[in-house]
Write a structure and sequence with these properties.
The chain is mainly alpha-helical. The chain has one domain: ABC transporter involved in vitamin B12 uptake, BtuC (Orthogonal Bundle), CATH 1.10.3470.10. The protein contains 13 helices and no strands. The longest helix is centred in the first third of the chain and has 37 residues.
Length: 328
């Protein structure tokens, strides 16, 4: 079993390296390996490297966030969108973009982008705080899951109203952001995105034991000495921060949070969450690296929306799971 898992990890690492190579040197309007030296340096260090790092971090954060929520709710179809975390982040970004231009908040690009980042994190945290307050009153994960879905619907309805009453220019900016992209992240953005994401990912290592216990239910977790409410509180908080950060810099990337943990369980038949933690980081990174390469190479001189590619990959996988496991 160990040898089999080792082989799987080696294959995932090889796919990861291949994905990094494609993201760094291939895709877009031209092959970077054939570019002039000066142009090569600019494209490589200012465009390709930030995009590749963003794909790795975003794939890891969304996949791990989905893993946390699926373990807490013991439901393979749970994800950042289910609790309304992503919807809260998107709503606040909609407020920033659709009203920010009218208030002249985006006169400087960096200030405008910083405002979007802060808005996204604020939106995710607001919804998370509401969920956490409710979680202290509600012991049932199913009820909490349904409440999260209602928050998602409420945020979506308010966002639709903002879109309806906004002017066309602002609406176009928001729609493009909503399609998801890894190419808009700069080296300056990474100085915020990378350290905060790594802190959250490393913090989760201290909750591996509670994750393993929570997988077997609240009663089992309490019997082995796990403080159920406190552990759930911190785990949902980590998930929301990871989701808010990624949504801020990349837009609402679809299906990674749901599909990757499912794929991890298909590849590694293990109940140990440390195994799936490592696998989700690798698989999430691989999917986003290959998805981004496909976005920039499928049609010459045109980049396809990232959400379109991730949805075409993730949705069939979720449908397959539902047919394969009808009792879920």
């Amino acid at each position: 079993m160990k040898d089999n898992s080792t082989i799987k990890y080696i294959l995932l690492i090889l796919l990861f390296i291949l994905g990094c190579f494609l993201s760094l040197f291939y895709g877009g309007t031209e092959n970077i390996l054939s570019s002039e030296i000066t142009e090569h340096n600019f494209i490589f260090w200012q465009l390709r490297v930030p995009k590749t790092i963003t794909a790795i971090i975003a794939g890891s954060t969304l996949a791990v966030s989905g893993l946390i929520l699926q373990v807490i709710f013991r439901n393979p179809l749970a994800g950042p969108y289910v609790l309304g975390i992503s919807s809260g982040a998107s709503l606040m970004v909609a407020v920033s973009i659709l009203t920010g231009n009218a208030l002249h908040l985006f006169s400087d690009f960096f200030i405008g982008k910083s405002f979007i980042v802060l808005s996204s994190i604020t939106g995710s945290l607001i919804v998370t705080l509401l969920i956490l307050v409710i979680s202290k009153k509600v012991s049932s994960n199913i009820v909490l899951l349904l409440i999260g879905l209602m928050f998602s619907q409420i945020c979506g309805a308010i966002q639709t109203a903002l879109e309806y009453f906004s002017n066309p220019n602002n609406l176009k900016t928001f729609v493009i952001w909503g399609m998801g992209s890894l190419a808009n992240t700069t080296n300056q953005d990474l100085s915020i995105f990378v350290p905060f994401s790594l802190v959250c990912l490393l913090a989760l290592l201290f909750f591996i034991k509670p994750l393993n216990a929570l997988l077997l239910g609240q009663n089992y977790a309490q019997n082995v000495g796990i403080n159920f409410n406190r552990s759930r509180f911190y785990l949902i908080l980590i998930s929301s921060v990871l989701t808010g950060l990624t949504t801020a810099f990349c837009g609402p990337v679809a299906f990674i949070g749901i599909a990757v943990p499912i794929l991890s369980r298909m590849v590694f038949n293990s109940s140990k969450q440390q195994t799936h933690y490592a696998a989700c980081i690798l698989i999430g990174s691989i999917i986003l690296l290959f998805s981004d390469a496909l976005c920039h190479s499928a049609i010459k001189s045109m980049a396809l929306p990232l959400n379109m590619i991730t949805t075409l990959i993730g949705a069939p996988l979720v449908i397959y799971l539902m047919f394969r496991n009808k009792h879920w």
